[in-house]
Amino acid sequence: MLRITLQPQWQIGRDGTEALPVNALLQLLAAVQSSGSIAQAGREVGLSYRHAWGLLQQAEALFGQPLLTRGRGRGSVLTPLGQQLIWADTRIGARLQPLLESLAAELEGALGRVQRREQAVPRLHASHGFAVAALREQLAQRGVAVELRYRNSLEAVAALAQGDCELAGFHVPLGEFQHAAAQRYQALLQPGAHQLVQLAVRTQGLFVAAGNPLGIRGLDDLKRRNLRFVNRPEGSGTRMLTELLLKRHGVAPRQVSGFENTELTHAAVAAFVASGMADVGLGVQTAAHRFGLHFIPLLKERYFFAAPTEALARAEIKPVLAVLQSPAFRARVAALKGYEAAGTGQVLTLADAFGG
Fold this sequence. Notes:
alpha+beta
């Protein structure tokens, strides 16, 4: 079975000069940041001391200012420019990685069809999430093929209704917003004809800088003019949740500075806040934890895969269900900060999940 991996790569140069191999530089800078030693960093990334120094000198000549400060007895420390380069790469990864993973899965499927693959491969369309990424890893480890396409929750369920996929990932908040959120998906799903497989329960909340220096306590603070917000795109489940929460608190979108600024994923929102380009965003706790942010929990939600009832009995879907229901995958989900896996793999009717 083919596995394709796509990674972002960027270069910087000036007219008439050789482009700087930025990826190698970024690896070196990250290693210096963690070790404080150019020699140690070079060994970690597989560069000789001479090569590491040469790469740093080439970069500093290009930018016209140092990337490191070096002092006796305290090792090497990144300058603000060096730190900003690492943050730029982090934002690129957070923003592009889901798109690249989705494209890689599409390419795997296209090449598989050209190879006249004997067994049908299930198509999974889902909003990006850490448990979905963990599922893809577990499926790959077990040799279970899926065609994964990342898209927002509403697009995923619409694709299922149109027959463009067999599994569609979406999320619905628990509590007072469940009915309003579930309605827009139930309009595309039919009782009896569709069932749900629970992936996880996860916590959504506000991302703010480490230590919460601006003293943000909750959604009411978003009316403060000095706060810069970063949102999720129209159609995403988290964007809908944001709008429901703001309405409950009597906060109009026009009162929120940066409401129209969007990032595609929870990780991209967290990276945006962590880099200082925004003061607050909303997303899952896992992203806040991974980027060292302070997290203010607001509510929990369930993430489901919707599927045609008859599809759940197909030979190509059964291995996916087996992974979802395995103790190993439950343990993987439970290990994610802010995730709960007690119901992972459970198959539910629409009435079981949402009542009625």
